Amino acid sequence: MKRTIIDRTATILYIAAMAVYAVSIIYMHWFMTNDKALPIPREEVQVIREWTYTDQLTGPEKITSPTRVEKDGRDTFVFEGKIPDSIPEGSVLAILNRVNFTAEIDGRILRKWDPSEAPIIGGTPKNSYFFVPLRQDDAGKTIKLTFKSDIFGGKMFDAFVGNRYEVVRYLELKNGAFQFAMSLVLLVCSLGIIIAGLVLKILFNQRMKLVLISMGIFVTSSWMVADSFVFQFIFRIQFIDGLMSYMTTLSIIFPFIAYLNSIQEYRYRKWYLILTIVEFLNMMVFTGLHISGVYSFAQSLLWLDIVLGVGVLGCMVLTIVDIVKGNSAGYRFVAYGFLCLMILTIIEIVLINTVVERVEGGVIIAGLYILFVFAIIQQLVEIRQIGIERDRANEEGAAKTRFLASMSHEIRTPINSILGMNEMIMKETRDPDILNYAGIINDSGTMLLSLINDVLDVSKIENDMEEIVCANYDPGRMFDAAAEVLRTGASKKELAVKIGKPRNLPKVLYGDEKRILQIVTNLITNAVKYTEEGTVTFTGECFEQSDGYVLCFYVSDTGMGIKEEDMDGIFDPFHRLELRKNQNIQGTGLGLSIVKSLVEKMNGEINVESTYGKGSTFSVRLPQKAKEDEISDKFNSGNAVEDDDLSDIDPNYIAPEARVLEVDDNRSNQVVVREFLKATGVQLDIASGGTEALKLCKVNRYDVILMDHMMPHPDGIETLHMIRSDEGGMNASTPVVILTANALRGSRAEYEAEGFDNYLSKPVESARLLKMVRKYLPPDKVMYKPKKRTPISENGPAPDTPGTALPADGPVDIPALLARFDNKEETVSLILEEVIKEGERKIPLLRQLAESGDIKRYAVEAHGVKGVMSSTCVPSLSDTAKRHELAAKEGNAGYVNDNLESFLAEYEQVLEYIREYLKGRKT
Ligand code: ADP
């Protein structure tokens, strides 16, 4: 369908070009041969055509110009003509000539010229116009022009008399100014394409066939520009080497032969070679004869043109043969153009050799334009074709990625179940054989899982679907996590470990923590994998620069090293070295390729130095941003933004009279607060959203309200505004503390401006919450027991690992969670039960929100997951949820959809882990 449109357009263009050509030929012919058509009145420029001719052999004879007298032993030709009776001031007589001449009136010499005056090295000048100055009293007198013999003899063209300016204008028009301009345009366009082609070739190593044809057109049009009589008026250069025009004519054919040969895919290369040799000999032989003075170009013109015509005919025949054979589909547009140009060139050659006085080149120019237009169409079609193919390839790639993504998700889920079940087996059996088998299942399953993840990563990267999602993170914590990977890996192989944490590491950086960790752990895993004995060293550096930091990591090992010749391919996907030697080392050859792509996506750099047999060092440099208020004012390292007057408050109080309202849409958060406040005995009401809170506020007077920020409509801020705007309402002036995870200094001011009394960051800590509530309780409602209870620790002692046999590196940090709740397993279980219920509701909700495109609400829900997971000590899921929240807030639905399944699978895995934990506790 698209092809036919192009075909039709090309045919229409072809017909249009032919029509334009026909009209312009008729117009030019009429315009240039009919003096009356010139816009200058005849009286202003007068033409002398009647002459009396004499030479040393014959007596006077009347002739009419233009005329030619054969040499036949003559060397002087005298033409006498009458200057018109009335001539304007400052008149000149213009004559076309290229030999020695003298112009005189009554023995007074007006102009004398010798070709040796022309600044052309050894060459013959082309015919050009000479201007002989006349006086007004020369009117009516006889002017005598004496010419030296040219190669053929003597020539007398028409002479023109008039004011110099008018004569120039007249001559410009007479000699095809339009044609000259057209040649000039062609010259500039073709030169532009040649330059563009060269740039493409140099920068992108791309070949454009159009360049060859442009070269041909460039040579042809430059010949036409230089050969035109108008040239001298435009460029003020009178003497052009006549030889040059012959040379250019002879060389025109070569680029065209090369172009035809290339578009016909070298099917007739022998014939084209023969044509090239013939034309080359033609050029060399006749140029040699001319330069040596044996046989001048002027004499050999006919032969030259015949051989040139044969070359053109040869190209034409080969092209026709190719078209007839049905091979021209790939270059059909240009074939039209070529046939046209060839026919017109032959017409031009015939005309040059038969018509004496004529502005040459018009026919060829028209042919060149037609060819040029078609060659450009051809090139555009090719570029378009490349574009279509690229789109198709991209589409295929994207489909492949979608397939891989969904397939790997489908595979991951059962593998997770297999691994989970296997873990149960390992837990329950004491049989060493079964334990051994289960261990193998575990290793292979884990390996399979990581392979699937790698394949997924690579296909995403290859299709440019991998996104770098930046957020604030703690680089110190990330470094520790990577170091832990090294310690664990190295201890299994009994390798020594050296870890040097970078100094000057800022507390917060802005970047993609998960991906950076992926890069570093990949390098660490490789170092451990490919080292049998010795040490693996992991260090880093951090430099400040104008717009942030440069984070550097170095991973060195004393392992097998990499050969010099293998260095180049090390980052290519599926590239593994020394397969035989490494056959026992598990790997896919994808790790480093993923690492490199990720580093490049982050505008970083990765380098490797290695000595074969001694070890390798991989170094990574990653520029990271650090927004000012996010560096020093970060919250999670010291709660710098929180109210520090809390330090003097004793949290061990009871306040059974006090009434507190808790507003949060997440059940587990509700339970956390409830459990924390339990010991104080306060009367706690819980609202699951803004609307419910408003209802409760209408009937109860609260001493403090604890308000979550991110909730589905109305959110915490809107709810606060509504409570405050209820003038005379029971809670219009109740202190409201916001509980939020937006813990940056800027946020504090913002929340204050919104009307909140204070601010608690999530995950909420027990002591801080108690102190905060205490701060706003009326003193008369607060009591301290005379004997102090067990103090509520801010950092509870780490309990023993619970009695369940859950793996220590599971997604939930149970010990930390227990510590948060003073090692009260009951409380923790209660909270975790809520987390499960909530999760069961949230997983389908998140999927539904993502599928329906409700990205705003999705952000709110993901935010909720982030908060719950961080307060229940599930850092990795909290992190993932944070990425989703950020992406959703930025409206990046692509990221959300691409990563939804893996997010939900991770969520599901966490729930499963918690279920296992709870089951273990019950039994
Ligand atoms: P693999 O999954 O095979 O480890 P990678 O892409 O991570 O794939 O690495 C590609 C190849 O580079 C490896 O197969 C290994 O031959 C070589 N290589 C990577 N890291 C090291 C290292 N620290 N020491 C020696 N060789 C290494």
Q: What tags apply to this protein structure?
A:
923 residues, alpha+beta, six-stranded antiparallel beta sheet, 26 helices, elongated
- Number of DSSP strand runs: 24
First and last CA, distance: 71 Å
User: How many helix segments?
Assistant: 26
Strand-residue proportion:
5-15%
- The neighbouring-strand order within the major sheet is 3-2-5-10-7-8
> What bound compounds does this protein have?
adenosine-5'-diphosphate
Assembly annotation = single chain
Mean pLDDT equals 81
Question: Which spans have pLDDT < 50 for at least 5 consecutive residues?
Answer: 32-38, 628-641, 787-805
Main structural class: alpha+beta
- Main sheet: strands, sense, barrel: 6 strands, antiparallel
- As a whole number of angstroms, the C-alpha radius of gyration is 46 Å
Cα shape: elongated
The percentage helix is 40-55%
